[in-house]
Specification:
CATH class of the largest domain in chain B: Mainly Alpha
Oligomer: heterotrimer
Mean pLDDT of chain B: 85
Number of domains of chain B: 2
CATH superfamily of the largest domain in chain B: MetI-like
Helix content of chain C: over 70%
CATH architecture of the largest domain in chain B: Orthogonal Bundle
Largest interface: B-C, 104 and 100 residues
Distance between the termini of chain B: 28 Å
CATH topology of chain C: MetI-like fold
Low-confidence stretches of chain C: none
Number of domains of chain C: 1
Radius of gyration of chain B: 24 Å
Low-confidence stretches of chain B: 1-13
Shape of chain C: globular
Strand content of chain C: under 5%
Number of strands of chain B: 0
Radius of gyration of chain C: 23 Å
Chains: A alpha+beta, B mainly alpha, C mainly alpha
Mean pLDDT of chain C: 87
CATH topology of the largest domain in chain B: MetI-like fold
CATH architecture of chain C: Orthogonal Bundle
């Protein structure tokens, strides 16, 4: 049983705040992904949990014990590093056995565990090699095997797949997910790749400028971004945002069209819609009053669909079209949002209005 | 210089005489380095009479009389022994003082780091053998005059900046993640150093130790100023320059040169990486 | 894990050592040169040094030697470094051969060139065998100061160009190849590439090499003793004489301050002359 509690953890480097008072609980056996752009503080948070970095303030609890004053080796964790950190002077076998030997396990047990984790990671035929004789993907497997061999309560992974090429990354993603589901460890996984995050995570914590702005399931962060930032960060292409002006009684003017929205006292809001949640009408069937018009600027045929970047009221609007749509740059586009997919944001706080 | 650098160009139209000039230059420069050493060895392995004879032959009749004479010459054995002792102490001192500093510089950010680095670099702008003068006075007071340790301390001063900078570059070349991985796998700082870092830097540390040895082995001025009874080989030879017979000088020179040749061969891999970082 | 004290603890031994054996002795040497045994401030030692008949000669010889040797070494090393960089095969072997003198002491270098220049040496033998001379010439005799100077120069160039070469080769290794490819695309000749890319990018290395070499050139000693005896006085030789033979460490200290002063002076001059603006480095 290893639940992780992060309580008001903050970190300052000199005068800059890398982390602002983070509170986060990770349930036993949960797979949590810390997702954010580079420099947002996600790796710092992971390293604070590992004990490689000391928090300026706050507490870290693992499995009911306070660990933030303990050395990494006393925290019951294992870690996989971005550059793998496979010891170059030891064989693959000795790399995997390293943590077991430090724990002074008997040789028979070391043998058993090394062979088991090596089988698990499909590197049983590489045990006598040195890291210099391995490919990037193989080193990655050794690094994971080495971490799993110690049977840690908590597994910390710092961008473990980012040095692999795209195809290998996809393959390892699926494999890691299977292996970790069986291993019963609590995992914190840091990445800047949203596809990786969404495909693997039980829960995604999105980090921006040293704060966790939303922690929820993949579908939830996609459908209901808690902040303007989440909408603009998650999804490729990201959510569209248009200015909305109050017309009274919960009606809002969005690019010249009346749209029903929340009844709040603000005069201005931001209207958010995903590119695939926009329906397009032929000019004849629609009434310009309830179907605003946009002008297509750029078309990008992406195979499965056609992405149109349009201008509406001098604002950018991306629309996902059917790949057979016969449109060209310069054409007008009559569109309307799918009503239950519209999200509203307060421009002053950037928070979603529920 | 243009014609010389053009030689290797991938641009077409390089003439063959560029090629000749290039090869010729390389060969000439090799001869320029090697021939004087060869001539010293010719003298060393000639009979004493042949060394003072005229004219000289380029290919001698091999004869070890001069070398034997040198080895048996009064004071030589002791000087050789002193040299080895001083150089060994210098080697141990400069690595044991310098390597921790190099490690600290490569792994930590702390107040005063830049000051220390500047202090180390500053030693380069100072004529360090001059240190022998004030230290000669100081040593008499503390009883270190004419001692192996006293001279080794001065030589350590010469070698320490190199030891710090080389080990700094060695440790910087080892990803910190290796150490961190060891910590997460159950090591404390010392265990991680012993099990992971040390095996990886060992060849480099050996190279910088050898370098410290060579610095001490070759140093003349401080050795001549600070020692009387415990003369090192260079100091001994320097004193004998005025009156010793020629064949003694040449045999002595060869004894000084030969270990140095071996040492440079051993550390050749590290010379360049060492100066790469020492620039900054 | 991150003990704040650890780096200081690791640094302490070497920092203490530098204070005791580097900073303090240089204060001590100034004290020796300016203060008498009875504790009074005096310029008497400097007067004694400056009025000694050998002082001017020693100072001028030292400066002249540095001036004759160092620029030549820089140019030679630059040439050697470009040759090495252009090599496809045998680069390691050639580099090893060219850096051999790095391990050879100034005394040994002096003895090596003594084998060539002494009266029964190889230069005389060679010239006689070609029929240029009848009798061997006393190149290193007291009346031939010019040839002594040349012999010392050659020995110094032979011995100490290697260190410059190593620094420059290391420096050239840091210059990204893309710059040359970019220059090639713009049609720059090899010579233009050398003057417009290599030289400016090499400035920090050139600076290091020149400082190191100039300081070492002012310390020239054993080579001079080996080849010239006392016929060509230099500053370090005079220091040795005053300290060891004449047992007057005060005058020796005054000399030491002169060497120190010109060393620091030239260091500052080179640093200023070859300064690189911050952010303009590789």
């Amino acid at each position: 049983m290893a639940e992780i509690n992060i309580k008001q953890v903050a970190k300052q480097f000199g005068g800059t705040h890398a982390l602002h008072s983070i509170d986060l609980t990770i349930a036993d056996q949960e797979f949590l992904v810390l997702l954010g752009a580079s420099g947002c503080g996600k790796t710092t948070l992971l390293r604070i949990v590992a004990g490689l970095e000391t928090a300026t303030s706050g507490e870290v609890w693992i499995g009911g014990h306070r660990v933030d004053k303990l050395a990494p080796r006393d925290r019951g964790i294992a870690m996989v590093f971005q550059n793998y950190a496979v010891f170059p002077h030891l064989t693959v076998y000795e790399n995997i056995a390293f943590g077991l030997r430090m724990a002074k396990l008997p040789q028979a047990e070391v043998d058993k565990r090394v062979n088991r984790t090596a089988d698990l990671m499909h590197i049983e035929n590489l045990l006598s090699r040195y890291s210099g004789q391995l490919s990037g993907g193989q080193r990655q497997r050794v690094a994971v095997a080495r971490a799993l061999a110690t049977e840690p309560a908590v597994l910390l992974m710092d961008e473990p797949l980012s040095n692999l090429d795209a195809l290998l990354r996809m393959e390892m993603r699926a494999e890691l997910k299977t292996v970790l589901a069986e291993s019963k460890t609590t995992t914190i996984y840091v990445t800047h790749d949203q596809v990786e995050a969404m495909s693997m995570a039980d829960r995604i914590a999105i980090v921006n400028e040293g704060r966790i702005v939303q922690a929820a399931s993949a579908v939830e962060v996609y459908r209901n971004p808690a902040e303007h930032f989440v909408g603009s960060f998650i999804g490729n292409p990201p959510m569209n945002f248009l200015d909305a002006t109050a017309l009274g009684d919960g009606w809002w003017d969005v690019a010249g069209t009346r749209i029903k929205g929340p009844s709040v006292k603000q005069n201005k809001l931001q209207f958010g819609i995903r590119p695939e949640d926009i329906s397009v009408h032929s000019p004849k069937t629609s009434n310009p009053q309830d179907s605003p018009s946009a002008t297509i600027r750029v078309l990008e045929p992406l195979g499965s669909h056609l992405l149109a970047s349009c201008k509406v009221d001098n604002q950018m609007l991306r629309v996902v079209l059917d790949s057979d749509a016969s449109v060209k740059a310069g054409d007008p586009l009559h569109w309307s949002p799918v009503a239950d997919r519209i999200r509203w944001f307060d421009p002053a706080t950037a928070l979603a209005i529920l | 210089m243009s014609h010389k650098t053009q030689v290797n160009g991938t641009v077409n139209g390089q003439s063959t005489w560029h090629r000749y000039l290039f090869t010729g230059s390389v060969i000439m420069l090799c001869l320029w380095v090697l021939v004087p050493i060869y001539l010293l060895l010719v003298n060393t392995f000639s009979a004493p009479e042949a060394v003072s004879a005229f004219p000289k032959k380029a290919f001698p009749d091999i004869n070890t009389e001069s070398v034997e004479f040198f080895i048996k010459y009064s004071g030589v054995a002791q000087a050789l022994w002193s040299s080895i002792k001083v150089a060994t102490v210098t080697m141990i001192l400069s690595i044991s003082l310098g390597a921790p500093a190099g490690y600290a510089l490569s792994r930590f950010d702390f107040t005063g780091k830049e000051t220390f680095r500047v202090l180390v670099l500053m030693t380069r702008a100072f004529p360090l053998p001059l240190l022998a003068l004030p230290l000669a006075v100081m040593y008499i007071k503390v009883g270190l005059d004419d001692s192996v340790l006293g001279l080794a301390l001065v030589h350590t001063m010469l070698a320490l900046p190199f030891a710090v900078l080389i080990t700094y570059s060695l440790f910087s070349g080892i990803p910190i993640e290796l150490e961190e991985a060891a910590w997460t796998l159950g090591c404390n700082r010392l265990q991680a150093f012993v099990k992971v870092i040390f095996p990886l830097v060992l060849p480099g540390i050996a190279a910088s130790a050898i370098f410290a040895f060579v610095i001490s082995w070759n140093e003349v001025f401080a050795a001549a100023v600070l020692t009387i009874e415990h003369r090192t080989l260079p100091a001994f030879l320097l004193q004998g320059l005025g009156n010793a017979p020629l064949h003694l000088k040449f045999a002595g020179g060869a004894v000084l040169v030969l270990p140095a040749l071996l040492f440079i061969f051993l550390v050749r891999k590290y010379l360049f990486s060492m100066w790469g970082i020492a620039n900054r | 894990m991150y003990s704040r004290k650890l780096p200081y603890l690791l640094l302490l031994p070497s920092a203490l050592f530098l204070c005791v054996f580097f900073l303090y002795p240089f204060v001590l040497v100034a004290w020796q040169a300016f203060v008498t045994d009875t504790g009074e401030l005096t310029s008497e030692y400097f007067m004694e040094m400056a009025t000694h008949w050998k002082f001017n000669t020693a100072l001028i010889n030292t400066l002249l030697l540095a001036l004759a040797v160092v620029p030549f070494q820089i140019v030679l090393a630059l040439y050697m470094a470009t040759l090495v960089n252009g090599m496809k095969r045998g680069r390691d072997l050639i580099l090893y051969i060219w850096t051999i003198p790095l391990g050879i002491s100034d005394l040994a270098a002096g003895i090596i060139w003594l084998a060539i220049f002494e009266q029964t040496g190889f230069l005389n033998s060679f010239m006689q065998s070609l029929g240029f001379i009848e009798e061997p010439i006393g190149f290193l005799g007291y009346q031939n100061k010019g040839t002594i100077f040349v012999a010392i120069m050659l020995a110094e160039i032979w011995r100490a160009t290697a260190i410059v070469l190593v620094i420059l080769v290391a420096g050239m290794g840091l210059i990204p190849k893309e710059y040359y490819e970019a220059a090639e695309v713009f049609g720059a000749s090899r010579w233009k590439q050398f003057t417009r890319i290599t030289l400016p990018m090499l400035k920090p290395s050139l600076q290091t090499a020149m400082i190191l070499r100039v300081i070492l050139a002012f310390e020239v000693f054993a080579v001079v003793v080996a080849l010239g005896g006392t016929n060509l006085p230099v500053l370090m030789g005079e220091i040795y004489t005053w300290q060891y033979d004449l047992r007057d460490s005060s005058v020796a200290a005054a000399y030491a301050l002169v060497v120190l002063a010109i060393s620091i002076g030239f260091t500052l001059l080179i640093m200023w002359g070859l300064r690189t603006p911050k952010g303009a480095r590789v």
